[in-house]
């Protein structure tokens, strides 16, 4: 089938990932039919946002074998993944940008807001010296995955940490080119975006979800790690998806089944203060990363998460909130393999 005869999301995903990988990823996900039905010469912000998330989901599974194995098993059982949210981490210096990259969340709000996302809530992560923010899509809040974007505050650490962070993250580049910025500006201005322009912009915008700085010096990495597992993680993994999350009916029952299958499960279920949001995850998979000294080392990579959401009795709709305690507990998945850093 030619690109012109596909729905907007399929056309974008196939153009970005290739025909086989694109269709395999789409087949793994339960996507709102109204989104899949969108087609034509122009691409809506909702279709572009969903295609972006499909491609990010594929990238996460490429880097997280435990998650890929789970999804493969889910599809073999006749199921599909309801992609609830993706999480990413950023770093905020007190005096402006990070190298050539806008500081902290600014590197991503310039993408999220034009594509129809709004900030739904702020979650202080004080124990981690971070702030989390949830971004929810205005057009399809339950169907298009949310982003949980966290920001690590360099000014909450000591001067030695700040100097090492400056050396590591100060080399960051800005991945967005003029063409991608123009497409985002058109979405922001409610102007039509042609399919051909959306196809050209998607890989560039996808590249923003990656590491933008040079490989760190190992001594700087170790110093960051001594103060913050999250800072060390950003040093090697950058702004890649920290995790992607599967929305399931009964996360507690699923966790027990997966533990029985000897999957790399988190020991404890995280339950929100309301009791309506329950989360668990696989432990982060180890990855090999090249450091500035030319050595490859094993470090914690990303992971796959599971969540159950109940109906909020006040709204009668799915409770799409997050929880500070839950988030702090889930973040520990990338520090569980500290001993693997070598």
From TrEMBL:
<comment type="similarity">
    <text>Belongs to the 2-oxoadipate dioxygenase/decarboxylase family.</text>
</comment>
<keyword id="KW-0223">Dioxygenase</keyword>
<keyword id="KW-0408">Iron</keyword>
<dbReference type="Pfam" id="PF07063">
    <property type="entry name" value="HGLS"/>
</dbReference>
<keyword id="KW-0560">Oxidoreductase</keyword>
<dbReference type="GO" id="GO:0051213">
    <property type="term" value="F:dioxygenase activity"/>
</dbReference>
<protein>
    <recommendedName>
        <fullName>2-oxoadipate dioxygenase/decarboxylase</fullName>
        <ecNumber>1.13.11.93</ecNumber>
    </recommendedName>
</protein>
<dbReference type="InterPro" id="IPR009770">
    <property type="entry name" value="HGLS"/>
</dbReference>
């Amino acid at each position: 089938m030619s690109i012109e005869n596909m729905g907007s999301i399929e056309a974008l995903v196939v153009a970005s990932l290739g025909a086989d990988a694109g269709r395999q990823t789409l087949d793994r996900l339960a996507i709102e039919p109204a989104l899949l039905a969108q087609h034509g010469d122009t691409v809506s912000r909702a279709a572009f946002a969903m295609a972006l998330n499909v491609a990010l989901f594929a990238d996460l599974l490429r880097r997280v074998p435990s998650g890929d194995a789970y999804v493969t098993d889910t599809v073999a059982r006749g199921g599909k993944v309801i992609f609830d949210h993706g999480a990413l981490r950023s770093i905020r210096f007190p005096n402006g940008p990070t190298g050539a990259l806008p500081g902290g969340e600014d590197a991503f709000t310039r993408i999220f807001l034009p594509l129809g996302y709004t900030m739904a809530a702020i979650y202080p992560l004080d124990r981690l010296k971070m702030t989390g923010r949830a971004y929810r899509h205005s057009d399809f809040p339950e169907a298009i995955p949310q982003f949980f974007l966290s920001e690590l505050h360099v000014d909450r650490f000591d001067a030695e940490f700040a100097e090492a962070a400056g050396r590591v993250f100060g080399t960051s580049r800005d991945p967005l080119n003029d063409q991608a910025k123009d497409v985002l500006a058109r979405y922001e201005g409610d102007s039509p975006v042609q399919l051909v322009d959306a196809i050209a912009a998607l890989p560039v915008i996808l590249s923003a979800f990656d590491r933008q700085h040079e490989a760190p010096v190992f001594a700087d990495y170790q110093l960051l790690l001594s103060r913050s597992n999250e800072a060390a993680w950003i040093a090697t993994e950058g702004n890649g998806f920290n995790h992607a999350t599967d929305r399931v009916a009964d996360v507690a029952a699923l966790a027990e089944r997966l533990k029985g299958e000897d999957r790399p499960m988190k020991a404890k279920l995280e339950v929100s203060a309301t009791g309506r949001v329950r989360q668990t995850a696989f432990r982060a998979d180890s990855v090999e990363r090249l450091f500035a000294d030319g050595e490859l080392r094993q470090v914690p990579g990303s992971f796959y998460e599971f969540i159950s959401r109940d109906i909020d009795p006040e709204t009668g709709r799915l409770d799409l909130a997050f929880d500070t305690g839950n988030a702090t507990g889930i973040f520990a998945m990338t520090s569980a393999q500290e001993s693997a850093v070598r």
